[in-house]
Design a protein that fits this description.
2 domains, 6-stranded antiparallel β-sheet, mainly beta, about 5% helix, Elongation Factor Tu (Ef-tu), domain 3
Length: about 160
């Protein structure tokens, strides 16, 4: 009997958000550590933030506490304005420079526990899959996993 084999090349833990898509692991990235604590800002005195490289909408992930925000402005070569207050001094971050890649690629999800999961598909459909079984894959090209409407707990894994 033939079966379909899932073949993925990249994977990452999903940070659920009602507004921010899942960052694509293969997109261009900048990493570092925040050197100051300012509300809704990412400050890194050693960072080479440039408006040529960073654009509004780039996704910032706080690797220390698994929070997520978008860049709303490049204030200077060492300061970014963010859509959420997620950074404090000493916390590490990764900035995904090309989040729009996921709109064309999408990802499939590994679901760790039983529950409901609300997603936005690459075509823009918002849908809630009720009663998804844990330990399975959701074979839908996903762009975003909503925090509101998702009852699945544990680490949902995005696979590209």
């Amino acid at each position: 009997m033939a079966y379909q084999k899932l073949q993925v090349g990249l994977a990452s833990v999903v940070i659920k958000s009602d507004t921010i898509p899942i960052p694509v692991e293969s997109s261009s990235q900048i990493s570092g550590t925040a050197t100051a604590t300012t509300v809704n800002k990412l400050e890194d005195s050693s960072a080479p933030f440039t408006s040529a490289e960073l654009k509004t909408g780039a996704i910032v992930v706080n690797n220390t506490d698994s929070t997520i925000a978008e860049v709303t402005n490049v204030d200077s070569s060492s300061v970014l304005s963010l859509s959420q207050d997620i950074m404090a001094s000493g916390e590490s971050y990764t900035i995904y420079l090309t989040p729009q890649l996921n709109k064309s690629q999408g990802c499939i999800l590994y679901i760790p526990t039983d529950g409901d999961i609300k997603v936005e598909t690459v075509s823009g459909s918002e849908v809630t899959y009720a009663g998804v079984k844990g330990g399975t894959f959701l074979p839908v090209q996903v762009y975003k996993v909503f925090s509101t409407g998702t009852t699945v707990t544990g680490d949902i894994i995005a696979n590209w």
